[in-house]
Amino acid sequence: MTDDHLPGPGFRTLILAAGRGRRLGGGDAQMPKVLLEFGGETLLARHLRLLAAVGADRVSIVVGYRGAAIAAELERIGWRDRVDLIENLEWRQGSVVSLDRGASILDGEAPVVLMDGDVIYDHRLLQRLLGGRHPGTLLLDREIEPGDEPVKICVAGGQRIVDFAKRPAVASEWHGESVGFFCFAPALARRLGEAVRAVVQAGDTMTEYEEPIRALIRADTDGTLFGFEDVTGLPWTEIDFMEDVAKANALLPSLAA
């Protein structure tokens, strides 16, 4: 982000945590992924602890599958009065619906931090995110697994992001993996809210939330709006599969916080 938009105590945080995590198995007994425990702490509690350390006050979380269990965890850890829960009853649809439900957070005059809820990470990733130099900041890891599963940040012309997708359609010089954390200056956050609403109003409700971000990136032809912070070497992992749970547990000793 630019210096004019560096987040201070007034930045808003929106965490997407509505899905079931079906690829972890467990059927209807599966807990929401943000309630997975690592080192005796849920992902949710860890998110909130690390966000508080960088100045977050109120946090909004989009919930859907077993949202009551998330509310109960907030009570247990003493955060219920500091978190706004936004319900997405259509959580079986694409994640763009969750972002649409939380789009009012994007409409204000404060910077917005947008986060996937199913990530465990070193606290320095948040510091890098908040210290970004562009109105729209993404986190990029050059150590990317091959295949279609990772969401790719595609770079050309030095440091310009030219595409953002699991299956990129634009030629690039190199790419890295998106962590799933973003920071938007107020004006760009409002534009994202408009783009998200347009997708949902068009009936494209099976779309993932990355698509409207991608559209804004591809429209940024001079590279003045979006940029990335390179977090290669800092420990983190998204948790989609059981092997990711094992990876997260293995990462615990290397996490600085």
TrEMBL record:
<dbReference type="InterPro" id="IPR029044">
    <property type="entry name" value="Nucleotide-diphossugar_trans"/>
</dbReference>
<keyword id="KW-0548">Nucleotidyltransferase</keyword>
<protein>
    <submittedName>
        <fullName>Phosphocholine cytidylyltransferase family protein</fullName>
    </submittedName>
</protein>
<dbReference type="InterPro" id="IPR050065">
    <property type="entry name" value="GlmU-like"/>
</dbReference>
<dbReference type="InterPro" id="IPR025877">
    <property type="entry name" value="MobA-like_NTP_Trfase"/>
</dbReference>
<feature type="domain" description="MobA-like NTP transferase">
    <location>
        <begin position="14"/>
        <end position="133"/>
    </location>
</feature>
<dbReference type="GO" id="GO:0016779">
    <property type="term" value="F:nucleotidyltransferase activity"/>
</dbReference>
<dbReference type="Pfam" id="PF12804">
    <property type="entry name" value="NTP_transf_3"/>
</dbReference>
<keyword id="KW-0460">Magnesium</keyword>
<keyword id="KW-0808">Transferase</keyword>
